[in-house]
Amino acid sequence: MKIAVLANLKQNAPTWPGMSPDQWDDLDSPKTIDAIVAALEKGGHQAEFFEASIHPQHNLIHKLIAYKPDLCFNIAEGHFGDGREAHIPAILEMLRIPYTGSQVMTLALALDKPMTKRILSYHDLPTPEFQVFSRADDPIDEDLLKADGELRFPMFVKPSREGTGMGVSSESVVETVSDLRRQVALQLQRYNQAVLCERFIKGREVTVAIVGNLLPTDARRLNDRTAPSILPDELTFFPPLEVDLGAYDPSEGGVYTNRIKVELAEDFHYLCPASLPHALEQKLYRLAAGVFRVTGCLDIARVDFRLAAEEDNTPYILEVNPLPGLNPTYSDLCIEAQAAGWEYHRLINTIVDLAAERAGMTN
């Protein structure tokens, strides 16, 4: 097939005075793009990269019309707006060009962490208690407070619609109302968006990657408010990866910070497969399948968990990423695939095959 690889390179992103230093931390590097193109070519495809921008210097729409791809390999994160990860898929649907990965609604939903948590809560999928703040002095929900007016438990503060741990540092964990309001004010000023505050789950950080697509029968079976009791055969679950938080300096605060994900990415400390009892591992897979279903993921996704140390490793869902990083060296999903015995080119070409099958195409 003729495949257009669509992504946003960090080096091509707009800049302006006073922008946050982590503004484009979720964008891709040429190393990732080169690896994807090489993997597609190893799979027998013709592949070419295009910067995923409609602005005159990139002219994506005109270039796609001229290139005439059979399919697009989409990992475009976008630059601006609440639904920026859905912009390119929306354009591709207008052009009637098939693409890999989840569709417009899922990408817009998953970028909005509070809205995703509302969907998870509706389906009884466990996620930490939370509140969204649009102002630092918003009233705090009573169920988050003790009788004396202080926080019932530590809270974790982060932007509502960012990735790659943007805004996440040791200071994200707050113990008091005054600290919560201070951190909310800082993040409102820096990111100019609502701030998510959720109960901080003390414990291990684990992520589960999925490739595959649910058949209609499985989708119906997962359409209730509980996680499936049997794992769908159509989904492949890679071995869980645990971030080895104990290997980092205590200044990181025991959380998977933006610094770990970006500055220390080449020196990433992890355990994969994570050392988990079989029953807990299977539970994580079932919960991940439930998240995959209720958020409408397609082809590939990653679901992030915290295991509550004080609750016998009870898993809590933090978020779902339907557009996970695909750097072959340090991206969580690629490490998990490697632990399952998958070479990188197999992972990339499987994603293509899944999308092509959905589109009714044959190689």
Explained architecture:
The structure is a single chain. The chain has helices at residues 30-42, 60-67, 87-95, 104-111, 113-122, 177-191, 216-221, 258-261, 278-294, 332-339, 344-358, and strands at 2-7, 46-51, 71-74, 130-133, 155-159, 173-174, 195-199, 203-212, 235-237, 241-243, 270-271, 299-308, 314-321. Helices cover 31% and strands 19% of the residues. The protein has eleven helices and 13 strands. It folds into three domains: 2-101, 3-Layer(aba) Sandwich (Rossmann fold), CATH 3.40.50.20; 110-126 and 202-358, 2-Layer Sandwich (D-amino Acid Aminotransferase, Chain A, domain 1); 130-199, Dna Ligase, domain 1, CATH 3.30.1490. Helix 1 (30-42) links the parallel strand 1 and strand 2 (46-51). The protein has 363 residues and is of the alpha+beta class. The mean pLDDT is 93. Strands 8, 9, 10, 11, 12 and 13 form a six-stranded antiparallel β-sheet that branches. It has a four-stranded antiparallel β-sheet with strand order 4-7-5-6, with helices on both faces.
What is the count of structural domains? 3
The appropriate CATH architecture of the largest domain is: 2-Layer Sandwich
Average pLDDT reading: 93
Poorly predicted tracts of residues:
none
Broad CATH class of the largest domain = Alpha Beta
Radius of gyration: 20 Å
**Major beta sheet summary:** 6 strands, antiparallel
